């Protein structure tokens, strides 16, 4: 059996100019990065056109497990399937972070015959966007410490600096650090730490800004800490905005690539959904909607995280109106949610499938709470039995949700034709009536409780004294009207990653609450969630290599 990287390397790619031409992007609008990837100028988004806006389709999923779900693979396959039935379609995805690529997850460009290419480039540095975010983040850190060193005219309290450094790697040793050691000439000694770059507020801003002007406006509002007088200090106060924006001048432009079947794809921005808002950039999504009949995009992890934030943050801020949602599930993963061990997932087990279905059912109910119609895509695995497929289809019909078998890993776009037809049927029926889950003028605590109770099904929320203190401070500073961006484990509806399925009888513990004033959201920290992952005992990096011929091996 061929690996994903082997399939990608054998792809018959078209020059990126040809991909651009399919959707009306001229060569003058491209900044080429070789033959198969390009930046698209922001002018395309601003240009007037008579073309009606395309229909936006969200691909989300059940809570992820080690058994695999295939959300990105289904997203790519669906976009190719829509093109096969005559709908000019864009796929819009996030950029992979190097941390997970060299950690546990491996590559993040789809799989099998439903991939975006050039896969190796997309997974490794790509066009440098994440590096630009990292550098802009760390420029601000350097300016903060430089300000302290040269007299601290703003009166910043070194013990209340909330801005952290960033690196695009899983490195647990950097979670908590001390800077300024070695004497007076090396700066002020203080506690600091690193977040993974995709958790930086700069990444969130890059993905939510719709212009360079908006980018600078958002950067200016970032709070880096507080003065001795308990007043917030912003990036604007440190005169950091212009230089940070300059570092991001190319990163804000969406990246154009293609699928294995030459469907246009924007890969742009990469915030995680368990510690950030988990969506690709607004610029990429809006530009794609301007150029295509359909835009298929994803939100990270399960619908309890990615989809909720897509609806409550991205769609609300960007004025997007999703036409339908696809909820991806695999029979293997549902059996895992039903209590089956990893070694027994290939065995037929209807009792476990019935128990695991409760996880899928809850996600369907949640998506419907936003007024968006859903269809379930069963991402086929070779070990699925026909009886199991029919059993899952029967349970979906009992809750009145359409269900389609997707065979995109093995067949590419051909394996998504039936799913594409169902998506078009739903999207063009006009039944979607999108609305956010909560109103922004609700108190912060009430917004958090609404998400916890209605989306997670928690009995309630327990706030630490630190969390309460921060919430009160944010409301005092006029930030109470921001939406909520929950930082929570992706593996469970609860804040305990080991509680699979559809747990009940639990409470959510909020240990801390942070603010991203520039991105425009409040971040409650649930359970033991952290913003810098670590590497596993045997990281993927140990198996990745480049041969003398230039061939890359081990990358997914």
Features:
single chain, 556 residues, alpha/beta, 12-stranded mixed β-sheet, globular
Rounded to an integer in angstroms, the radius of gyration calculated over CA atoms is: 23 Å
The total beta strand count reads 24
Give a short account of the largest sheet.
Answer: 12 strands, mixed
- Measured as a percent range, the helix fraction is 25-40%
End-to-end CA span: 13 Å
Q: Shape from CA axes?
A: globular
Number of helices: 19
Strand proportion, as a percent range, falls in 15-25%
- Structural class label: alpha/beta
Mean pLDDT value: 95
- Low-pLDDT runs of 5+ residues are none
How would you describe this structure to a colleague?
- This protein has 19 helices and 24 strands.
- With 556 residues, it is an alpha/beta fold.
- The strands form six sheets. Strands 1, 2, 3, 4, 5, 6, 14, 15, 16, 17, 18 and 19 form a twelve-stranded mixed beta sheet that branches. Strands 7-12-13 form a three-stranded antiparallel beta sheet, with no helix packed on it.
- The longest helix has 21 residues, at 129-149.
- The protein is globular.
TL;DR?
This protein is of the alpha/beta class and 556 residues long. It contains 19 helices and 24 strands.
Question: Any chance you could write out the topology, listing elements then pairs?
Answer:
Elements: H1 4-9, H2 16-22, E1 30-32, E2 38-40, H3 43-46, E3 55-61, H4 71-84, E4 89-93, H5 98-102, E5 110-111, E6 114-117, H6 119-123, H7 129-149, E7 156-161, E8 165-167, E9 177-179, E10 190-192, E11 194-196, H8 201-208, H9 212-220, E12 223-227, E13 232-234, H10 241-247, E14 255-259, E15 264-267, H11 282-291, E16 294-298, H12 303-318, E17 324-329, H13 331-337, H14 350-368, E18 374-379, H15 386-398, E19 403-406, H16 408-411, H17 417-427, H18 444-455, E20 460-463, H19 465-476, E21 507-516, E22 521-526, E23 545-546, E24 552-553
Parallel strand pairs: 3-16, 3-17, 4-15, 4-16, 8-11, 17-18, 18-19, 20-21
Antiparallel strand pairs: 1-2, 2-14, 5-6, 6-14, 7-12, 9-10, 12-13, 14-15, 21-22, 23-24
């Amino acid at each position: 059996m061929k690996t994903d990287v082997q399939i990608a390397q054998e792809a018959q790619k078209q020059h990126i100019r040809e991909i651009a031409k399919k959707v009306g992007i001229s060569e003058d609008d491209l900044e080429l990065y070789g033959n198969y990837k390009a930046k698209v100028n922001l002018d395309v988004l601003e240009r007037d056109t008579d073309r009606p806006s395309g229909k936006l389709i969200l691909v989300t999923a059940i809570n992820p497990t080690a058994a695999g779900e295939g959300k990105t693979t289904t997203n790519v396959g669906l976009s190719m399937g829509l093109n096969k039935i005559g709908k000019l379609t864009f796929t819009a995805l996030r950029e992979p972070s190097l941390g997970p690529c060299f950690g546990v997850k491996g590559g993040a460009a789809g799989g099998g015959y439903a991939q975006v290419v050039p896969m190796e480039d997309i997974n490794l540095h790509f066009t440098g966007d994440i590096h630009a975010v990292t550098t802009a983040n760390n420029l601000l850190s350097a300016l903060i410490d430089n300000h302290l060193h040269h007299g601290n005219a703003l009166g910043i309290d070194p013990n209340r600096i909330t801005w952290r450094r960033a690196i695009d790697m899983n490195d647990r040793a950097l979670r908590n650090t001390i800077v300024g050691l070695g004497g007076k000439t090396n700066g002020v000694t203080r506690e600091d730490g690193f977040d993974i770059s995709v958790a930086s507020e700069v990444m969130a801003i890059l993905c939510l800004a719709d212009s360079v002007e908006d980018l600078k406006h958002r950067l200016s509002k970032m709070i880096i800490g507080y003065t001795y007088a308990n007043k917030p200090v912003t990036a604007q106060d440190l005169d950091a905005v212009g230089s940070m924006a300059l570092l991001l001048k190319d990163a804000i432009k969406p990246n154009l690539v293609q699928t294995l079947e030459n469907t246009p794809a924007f890969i742009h921005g990469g915030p995680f959904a368990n510690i950030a808002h988990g969506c690709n950039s607004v610029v990429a999504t809006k530009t794609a909607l301007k150029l295509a009949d359909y835009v298929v995009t994803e939100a990270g992890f399960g619908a309890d995280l990615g989809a909720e934030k897509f609806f409550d943050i991205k769609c609300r801020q960007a004025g997007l109106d999703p036409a339908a949602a696809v909820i991806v599930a695999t029979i293997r993963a549902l059996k895992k949610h039903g209590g089956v061990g990893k070694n027994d997932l290939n065995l037929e087990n209807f009792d476990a499938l019935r128990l695991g279905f409760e996880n899928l059912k809850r996600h369907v109910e949640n998506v419907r709470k936003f007024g968006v119609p859903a269809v379930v895509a069963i991402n086929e695995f070779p070990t699925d039995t026909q009886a199991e497929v029919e059993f899952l289809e029967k349970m979906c019909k009992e809750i009145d949700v359409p269900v389609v078998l997707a065979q995109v890993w093995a067949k590419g776009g051909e394996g998504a034709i039936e799913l594409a037809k169902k998506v078009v049927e739903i999207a063009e029926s006009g039944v979607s009536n999108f609305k956010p889950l909560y109103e922004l003028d609700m108190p912060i605590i009430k917004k958090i409780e609404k998400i916890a109770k209605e989306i997670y099904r928690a009995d309630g929320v327990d706030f630490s004294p630190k969390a309460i203190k921060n919430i009160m401070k944010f409301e005092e500073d006029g930030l109470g009207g921001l939406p909520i961006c929950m930082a929570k484990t992706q593996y469970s509806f609860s804040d305990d990653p080991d509680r699979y399925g559809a747990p009940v009888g639990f409470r959510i513990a909020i240990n801390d609450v942070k603010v991203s004033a520039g991105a425009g959201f409040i971040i409650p920290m649930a359970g033991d969630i952290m913003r810098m992952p670590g590497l596993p005992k045997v990281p993927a990096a140990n198996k990745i290599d480049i041969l003398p011929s230039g061939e890359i091996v081990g990358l997914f």
